[in-house]
Write a structure and sequence with these properties.
Length: 315
């Protein structure tokens, strides 16, 4: 049985769930590497990463390098004398870093690799209408998310699931998978699987603002999947044209219905306490939105304070 000395690398909340599982199960975490503090908000106050906050709370040693290739950082990392590195939602590592420990460096990725390599696998799986996804542990190599697979675990994507609920589900699933991976590495009784490198793989590109813009001429199912795949963050958006007013609107929750109508796509249809958008062969029922300059609200609360022009539409 190997005695593991682990360096953990990660930044967002997703990584905190996995780090907490390691701490709870008494793994020896000799250091935590996370992103440097960054200014955020109107006051540009320095904001610590979720992983840093957790690591400090648990009195773990924290390093926040700006340059992963610098001699100073590489020496600090070497001085920790780790024999294994665990990476969750961090940046790409140089070879000098991932080759350093005796037992290698493995990554947890929130997809069933080789599908959905990249920065936003949870979002893209929902946006593309997948019904299954999962988590994968693999040893890091020179390219992004291409290394030899250690273990995988699959789960369903429910029809009404959004990126937020799937994130939390995969975080729990990922915690279990990382613990199973560590047990196998400790015992030295595991085999890896080389990833296939097909040309038709679906990728999980970084989400940009343009990715989040809703096209009301698209198929209703595609609109529905885009909205839930971007909820609660960064959120799908559209422009509201309400008389002389033009407002940006973020949309967080909707439902779909088939309906015959003659409205142009994007037309807003108000029905009592409901607000619907005319789309191809149906209507998108707005349930939770955020008007520019306002907080996120249920649609009935929005309608209480919004005077809607009879010709209002979304584009």
């Amino acid at each position: 049985m190997k005695d593991l000395r682990i360096v953990f690398m990660g930044t967002p909340d997703f990584a905190v769930g996995i780090l907490d599982a390691l701490v709870t199960n008494n793994y020896n975490i000799v250091g935590v590497i996370t992103a440097p503090d960054r200014p955020a908000g109107r006051g540009r106050k320095l904001n610590e990463s979720a992983v840093k906050k957790y690591a400090i709370e648990k009195q773990l040693k924290v390093l926040q390098p700006t340059n992963l290739k610098s001699k100073e950082f590489l020496k600090e990392l070497s001085d920790l004398e780790a024999n294994l590195q665990v990476v969750v939602a961090f940046r790409m590592l140089p070879k000098e870093v991932w080759q350093m420990p005796e037992y290698g460096t493995f990554n947890l990725h929130a997809s069933l690799l080789p599908e959905y390599r990249g920065a936003a696998p949870i979002n893209w799986a929902i946006i593309n209408g997948e019904t299954k996804t999962g988590v994968t542990t693999f040893f890091i190599d020179e390219k992004i998310d291409t290394g030899a697979i250690i273990l995988q675990k699959e789960t369903d994507i429910l029809p009404d699931e959004d990126a937020g609920t799937l994130h939390d589900k995969l975080m729990l699933l990922g915690s279990d998978l990382v613990l199973s991976t560590l047990e196998r590495i400790k015992k030295g009784n595991f085999e890896t699987t080389v990833q296939k490198n097909a040309t038709d793989l679906k990728l999980a590109y970084k989400i940009h603002r343009d990715t989040c813009k809703i096209d009301w001429n698209a198929e209703p199912k595609n609109i529905y999947n885009l909205i839930r795949g971007l909820s609660p963050y960064p959120a799908a958006w559209t422009l509201l044209y309400n008389g002389e007013e033009e407002l940006t609107v973020k949309i967080y929750k909707v439902s779909m219905e088939e309906a015959k109508h003659s409205f142009p796509h994007g037309t807003l249809v108000k029905m009592k306490n409901e607000l619907k958008v005319a789309v191809k062969n149906g209507l998108i029922n707005l349930m939770e939105i955020q008007l520019q300059g306002k907080r996120k609200m249920a649609i009935k609360d929005v309608l209480n304070g919004l005077k809607l022009d009879k010709n209002a539409y979304l584009r």
